[in-house]
UniProtKB/TrEMBL annotation:
A zinc finger (C3H1-type) spans 102-124. Keywords: Metal-binding, Zinc, Zinc-finger. GO terms for biological process: miRNA processing. It comes from Cebus imitator. One of its GO terms (molecular function) is miRNA binding. This is Zinc finger CCCH-type containing 7A. SMART domains: ZnF_C3H1. The keyword Zinc applies.
Amino acid sequence: MKENGIQDMEQFYELWLKSQKNEKSEDVASQSNKENGKQIHMPTDYAEVTVDFHCWMCGKNCNSEKQWQGHISSEKHKEKVFHTEDDQYCWQHRFPTGYFSICDRYMNGTCPEGSSCKFAHGNAELHEWEERRDALKMKLNKARKDHLIAPNDNDFGKYSFLFKDLN
């Protein structure tokens, strides 16, 4: 699924159905061509496939500006901009909260908020949060450069706090 840019099981099922129909129609077509000794050429055989807008991240093609704007402003697309498969394996601490400093109460050994605390619990977590913020900023800049994020779009859901200083 990953190699073919398939997003979900519904899309996978639709592609499978199409392939089943194509195999059946190709068998019938090749059988009739063999019988007639002729190959039928259709004008669509020579038509160029044109796609006005293509999102390489999602594998989605859009035929109009309106459809493209709808795609790049969708939550699903924005999540792909910031998320990679490796994210769950390379980070060891909590997701940053936007407060890039160490919790004083944690350092005193008395933070009652635990994992819901807004501040980093130690130098290692703070350092990772800063690395994550930098990595996410790089992803955002690349997406903007590739026109995968609208230039005036600053709504990134749970990632918005990371980019306050960019706006």
